[in-house]
Amino acid sequence: MVFDTTPRPDAYSYGVMLRCLVDAGRHADAVALHQDMRQRRPCPEAQDDFVLSLALKACVRSAEYWYGRRLHCDAVKAGGGDGFVMNSLVDMYAKAGNLECARKMFERIPDRNVVSWTSMLSGCVQNGFAADGLLLFNEMRRECVQLSEYTMASVLAACAALSSLHQGRWIHGLVIKHGLIYNSFISAALLDMYVKCGEVEDARHVFDELSYVDIVLWTTMIVGYTQNGNPLDALHLFLDKKFASIVPNSVTMATVLSASAQLRDLSLGRSIHGIAVKLGVVDYDVVVNALVDMYAKCQAVSEANRIFGRILNKDVVTWNSMIAGYAENNMGDDALMLFKQMRLQGVSPDSTSVVNALSASVCLGDLLIGKSFHSYAVKRAFLSNVYVNTALLNLYSKCADLPSARRVFDEMNDRNSVTWCAMIGGYGMQGDSAGSIDLFNEMLKDGVHPNDVAFTSILSTCSHTGMVTAGKKYFDSMAQHFNITPSMKHYACMVDVLARAGNLEQALEFIDNMPMQADFSVWGAFLHGCRLHSRLQFGEEAIKRMMVLHPERPDLYVLISNLYTSYGMWENSLAIRKWMQEKGLVKLPGCSSIGHENG
């Protein structure tokens, strides 16, 4: 108010006012004030180094880069500016995404300090050139520049972007050496680095050693658990009484909703929905999208659709959440109709939209529609995306077009473990055991770490081809060489390997030695082997144990009836069928789906 009532403010008054606005975070007002200064107090006052550095800072924070370039011209006219101005110009060009100009300014600085180096380094990382950022950091250390907390945070962000765990751990050691481990800014960067490198346990060690935990650090750890497939750990941390004083924000709530979706726990998801309403964050875009995703994945499609319908400004993420929900619940037609509606409303589909549409095509078993989306992906230049390629590969495999699947696989430049597993599974589905095993061995040679799905596919292949020794070798290697704990699916596959080959005694011993109680799938695989090899005694033992586990399942009694039928014990089989009718147990008929255009 004093400044506005000053008839002819001098350069000093402008500088003080400019500093006040920048410190108060009113950066757009600071830019406007400097524009006024250039008109009312022309050179050299408006080109003072102190004033220019403040004005450039305001330009960066308000993203008014056009004015920043004008200020660069002023600096050149005034003789180039001092170190503060040149550092501000490096930062401005880097934030604007013009790394070429940022680099030129950086090279012109005669006495580069830690601010100069850090501005250039963070610019490289923020613009997707993390590897260049690490090279710059190494060059900085060779110049013996004193490192700051911002330097450390930027280089940790580079390690996270490159999933460079070894380098990240080395930086962690450097942080400890320089006594910066208790800096919350660096702690958040360390957590983020370990999380993005998939090392959740290391991230938790860093988290537990923190003397003070704020909303950012707490949420980062919860996000880390959720993104790395540990939803229970995420929810335990969210509910930990130690952090009861921290009020969750929209990102926290969206993350725990995602954890509920991973667990397919509708009751828990509804409770978290209630908390989001209570906290007043339920209308944030990130929370609304998470709600749609959670309800869809928990098979509450009508609730997901109701929330989706209430959203006025739907972005591509919102549409993708609903399309994915339909596809996951085998509602392929609805998913494709929504994809069409999205385009009609002017929202441009992204690579995730195409992945969801391809999943819907798989649900329908419609190869022709899937090929249309393949063409669309080519047209939109999405084929460089590993997830789109994997979805295409999955489409062709499940629609029995193995040559096309292999062609997609061979043309991929970037393959992850999911891609390899999809191709291995494709060979397995088509009964090509040699192709599955050869590809699995090729994956290992390429240094790709197989996941649990890969072992499910390869064990299934071994069971169908009678490769008992190979099956045992692959099963044992899961825990011994790849640190994968076998799940119930893997145990069921291994029982199937033994039972199909007629090794029923070994299969029963294997079941008895399992670390968890065998479920229906395990005993079903064993019973199937009993039928194949006419071993009624073992079959009846399997039936007794299955009836204890699931006395209400109609398909169990159908298996029993079929077992008696295969031995010519018609009266026993008929008695089971009559008993099912009396109890009202009806086995749902199986079904398959394939498009009529598939030929």
TrEMBL record:
Name-wise, this protein is Pentatricopeptide repeat-containing protein
Which family does the record assign?
A: Belongs to the PPR family. PCMP-E subfamily.
Supply the alphabetized keyword list.
Repeat, Transit peptide
NCBIfam families in the record: PPR
PPR repeat locations: 10-44, 82-112, 113-147, 214-248, 315-349, 416-450
The cross-references to InterPro entries, in alphabetical order and at most eight, read:
E_motif (IPR046848), PPR_At4g14850-like_plant (IPR046960), PPR_rpt (IPR002885), TPR-like_helical_dom_sf (IPR011990)
The reply on keyword NADP is no
